[in-house]
Each structure stands twice: as C-alpha cells, then as structure tokens.
Amino acid sequence: MSAVEMQFGGFGGQGVILAGMTIGRGLVLYENYHVSLTQSFGPEARGSACSCQLIVSREPVLYPYMTNPHILVALSQEAYRKFSPNLRPGGTLIIEEDLVRPDGHPEGVQVYKVPAMRLAEELGRKMVLNMVLVGFFTAITGLLQPESARRAVTDSVPPGTEALNLAAFDKGYSCGLAQLRVPSPA
Amino acid sequence: MKRTHADPSGVLTGKHFLDGDQACCEGALAAGCRFAAGYPITPSTEIVERFAQRVPQIGGMFLQMEDELAASIAIQGAVWAGAKSFTVTSGPGFSLMMEHIGYAAMTETPCVFVNVQRGGPSTGLPTLPAQADMMQARWGSHGDYEIIALCPNSPQECFDLTVHAFNLSEQFRVPVLVMMDECVGHMTEKVVIPPAEQIEVYPRRYTTLPPAEYQAFKAEADLVPQFARAGEGYHFHVTGLTHDEHGYPAMNVEPQRRLVTRLMDKIRCSADALARNEEYRLEDADVVVIAYGITARVAMRAVQMAREQGVRAGLLRPLVVWPFPQKRLRELAAGKNFAGFVVAELNCGQVFYEVERLVAGHVPVLLEGHTGGTVHKPEQILDTILRCANVAAEVSR
Predict the structure, then answer these.
(1) Is residue B233 assigned to a domain?
(2) Could you point out which of B2, B209, B271, B290 has its C-alpha 20 to 30 Å from the C-alpha of B296?
(3) Residue B271 lies in a domain
(4) Do the domain assignments include residue A70?
(5) Interface contact flag, A29 B375, Cβ < 8 Å
(6) Is there a domain that residue B360 lies in?
C-alpha cells in the first residue's frame, strides 16, 4: 500500500493532537504500521487552528511532512476552512457537526459528521469529545481494529480516566458504524 | 575497559510512540545519566521536561539554571562529583555554551550536549528545523580541540545515538554533541527500547592506582587519562589553563604542545573506529548523495526517484559527522569514476566544504543547500542529482 496522509485540526484545548496521537499509537503499536506524526508548532498554532499530521505506511516513511491529506478531521470552522482545500480528490472529511458548517470543501469528498460534543456531554464530560472522535474515526476509516484503538486509548489518557474515555470511544464508534450502515444524506 | 549493561531502573523497555526529544531523554536515562542542568529552549524543551519528571523517581536531579553558561558548567561539576550528565539546547543557547564546550574538551570532562537545531542566525526560527550549527559544533569554541558529533535521523536514533553519545564521552573523556534538528525532535514515531541487559554502557574510567601514585592527566595507551573517585582521598587539580599531567598550570610551549596534541590525537587517531555510516545502493552508483540527520531520509527518497528515472544514485549517510568519515569518503572517491557527489544539508554549505576538501580533483561536488524552516522536498535533491548526472554526461561527450 502507498502511504495514507491524514490531518487532525481544531482549536487549542479540544484535544485534537491527543486524538491524532492516539490513532498513531494504535497504528504503530498494535497494527504494525510505520507512522510519522508531526505537529504545527508555530505561533500561528497557538489559540487558533492547531493540527497534527500523520503519514501512515507499510514502508518506513522517508519524507516526513504531509502534502495533501487523504483524510481530514476538522473540529472547528477555522480548521475546516484552512485545511479542507488541501484534501485530495475523493478524500474523506470528518467534521464535528455542531462546530463545523461545511460550505467550501473540494467536490467529490466524502463527508461524515459526528456530534462529538453532544455525545461527550451525554457522558457528563465534554472534554472527552476527542475520544468520541477517535471512535468515530476508527469505525469510518477501518484503518485499525477497534481493539487496537481501544488499547491505544487506554495507553494515551491519564491514569484513572480510562473507563470514561473508553465509554467515549464506544459512543463514537457506534455512531460511525450506524452511518456506514445507513448512508448519510450529506 | 570492560563494558557493562544499563541500570534497569532507567530503562523504559518496550515499544513506544515517542517524539525525538522524548526518545533522547530516554536514551540519556538508559545510558545512566542522572543529572541534567538546562535553560530550556524550543525545540529542545521536551527533553528536559520529560527528564525532570522521570529522573527524581530513579534517584537523579534536574536543575533549571539562570542561563546556558551556568547550565553547561553545572553538568561538568556533576561529572567530577561522579555523575553522568548532560544539557540540551538549541542555536541561541548553543552559542552561549561554546566557552564551556571548550572547557570540557580541555579538562577532559565526559558530558553530552544535545543541540536540537532550529533556523538561525540569532533567535531565527524557534519552531522550525535547520542543520546550520554543524561547523559551530566542530569549531565553535576557541583554540584547537576535537569533539565527537552524532546526527540522528529518527526518534529511534535519538534514543540509540544518545546512548552512544554517553558511551563515547566516557570512553574518550570528551564532550559529545548530539546534533538533532527540530523536525527529528518533534516528530513522533515508533521507538523500541531494548531490555537493560541488551544496552551496553561504558562505565567511567576510574584509576586503580593508590592516591600517592595517581596523576589526574597522565594518559593511558589510548591517550585518555583515568578518573579518581571524588571523596576517596585523591588530591588533584582541574583547570582550563594549559596543565601538566598532575593537572597544575604549566603555561609554556612544551606542555601546551603535549596537551593539545594529545587532546587532538585521542580523537583523530580513532576516527576510523568511530565512523558509523549507512550506505544505500552505492554498489553501482554514478551519483552519491551525502546527507545526515533528517535530510538523509529525504535524500533516500530522492535516490529512489532518481533510480526510477534510470539514474544510478546512492546515499552515504554519516551517523558520526565529527570526526568526519574521511577514510571511507576517500576510498569511495578513489574507487571509480563518479559523475559526482551531491551534499544535501539544511544550511548554505558546511559539511559540503569538508567533502569538497576530501575529494577535490577526483570527484565534482555539488551542494544542495537550504536555508531551513522546513526540510528539502525530495524533488529538490532529485533535481541536483539529475543535474550532476547530466553535467557528467555532457563532459564525457
């Protein structure tokens, strides 16, 4: 397989980098992929659109930076506006449906919407929206087995919060599976 | 000197997903480093951030100092008290540490300096990569001296080469510089940390002589002197002034010649043994790309692309950049008629001049430089490979 490029974008504090890290960790540790994850570290990444980029391959990754993502996950309107024009034709766009109004991505992109914030609020902690997203991503992309992703969630979150984060993962995963069974009207 | 194995308390054995900075920290801990002093600076901060969290649990200490001068000498105090120690920095801090890199070379204090290189000069590009401190690593402090500098190209190598750096610093009693870059430091990848018993650690070279016979700077056959344990009755003097074998100032022509010659020779005479090169598709290569650190990964992609276009390219990657692997380079240059060598690096020409000096008159050398802020695109290095091949083809017509 040739490399798959993906980008996770949002605003600072949403846990978007941790979401990307969790996916990357699952792919590396439990699915034996090569992954290079880079982050935007510049002053422009503080308090506005922040992002991480992953290159996923069965071969060692040589050039470390993403060029055009196959998959974009956008948790804020700004991240959507800034990053979605780079999506590859036929790519996949995953958005937080209450936070992003999709009004300008390239044509032919498959869009999936997840109410990650609301699902997290149902668990009483909206900060776990990033793990809802990890669950949703796992279901939609099929890139890693749900058990691999769940182990990565456990590895990635603070000790003592595993159960809550896994519950968030499961909510997102179920939401994603439901959308695959019933095609989204978007 | 007999090698030993790593102290398991510092070794985070297992398969991890770490960035280069975190992996460097784990390498230091695995090598037995239990003291760091620093004045944290982007993009190296994560190394000591992790160290400050990890090391108190295994019996060590991190000190945040008032500046880089203090940090770079505090680590040397720790060494003379018996610890293994390091400091980490980036360009602006590296400039301030130059005086004490010279002091470590002169006093033969084994310690490790990590420079996660960012764009310069001055404060430059704090969050973006460059490889423009390579000659500063080589020559930055005043006077004649030799150091060892290593260039990792992945988080895995940030671990491996940091362990190696500590071992070399103990073996040769010399400051060893781990020359990372922002890209490698902030990139997260798989890092495998072996069990402690599979990690070799070079122990400090302690004298077996009684205090009355001990001379602190009298060298062994390999030109390196032995340490005395602090607090065990050995009296000795350590100074940055030119000194005799007892360590006392001896500021004349002959002691200067003896000392400086030995400081140079203990590294220069071991340069061939120190060399560590990765070679990729050199067997039939017409164009050889020479690159180190992150640029070598991009260069490997460019070599593959050149091959896809029918140009026989190869890659020589030094992991130990100083001392430069001059024997291998000269051998290579003398072995056949190459179309040329291409040196790719994130600066406007530094290692390029070293390569040119070594093979001048035998092989044309082209520079594929870059002012930093990102890494090369593979296509940029490819263009120079193709130009190199085409120029040679035209000349031969």
Answers:
(1) no
(2) B271
(3) no
(4) yes
(5) no
(6) yes
Contact between chains at A28 and B43 (C-beta distance less than 8 A)? no
pLDDT of amino acid A184: 52
Average pLDDT, chain B: 97
**Which of B359, B380, B379 lies closest to B368, judged by CA?**
B380
> B297 and A62 in contact by Cβ < 8 A?
yes
Distance CA A34, CA A17 (A): 18
Q: Does residue A166 belong to the interface with chain B, where contact is any CB pair within 8 Å?
A: no
User: pLDDT (tens digit, 9 = 90+) per residue, A27-74?
Assistant: 999 999 999 999 976 555 556 678 999 999 999 999 999 999 999 999
pLDDT digits over A124-163, tens only? 999 999 999 999 999 999 999 999 999 999 999 999 999 9
Rounded CA separation B94/B101 (Å): 9
Query: CA of B100 to nearest chain A CA: how many angstroms apart?
Result: 30
- ipTM of the complex model: 0.94
In a domain, B241, yes or no: no
Exposed e or buried b for every residue in B191-216, given b needs 16+ CB within 10 A? bebeebeebebbebbebeeeeeebbb
- Nearest CA to B61 out of B43, B91, B81 is that of B81
Phi, psi of B220 (to 5 degrees): -80, -175
The encoded tokens of residue B219 equal 């060298």
Across the interface, of B42, B187, B297, the residue whose CB is closest to A37 is B187
Q: Print the domain residue range for B115.
A: 4-201
Give the residue from chain A lying closest to B15, CA to CA. Answer: A29
Residue B235 phi/psi, 5-degree rounding, is -105, 125
Residue A72: strand pairing partners: A7, A93
Residues A92-111, mean pLDDT to the nearest whole number:
94
Measured CA to CA, the distance from residue B277 to residue B259 in angstroms comes to: 30
Domain of A61 in residue numbering reads as 4-181
Decide: residue B188, CB within 10 A, 0-12 exposed, 13-18 middle, 19+ buried. Answer: buried
B contact set with A (CB within 8 A): 15-17, 42-43, 127-128, 182-183, 186-190, 294, 297-298, 300-301, 304, 374-375, 377-378
pLDDT band at B2 (very low <50, low <70, confident <90, very high): low
Whether the predicted pLDDT of B392 surpasses 90: no
How many domains is chain B partitioned into structurally? Answer: 2
The model's confidence at residue A104, banded by pLDDT at 50, 70 and 90, is confident
Residue range B166-170: mean pLDDT, rounded: 98
Q: What is the CATH number of the domain that holds A66?
A: 3.40.920.10
Predicted confidence at residue A47, as pLDDT, reads 62
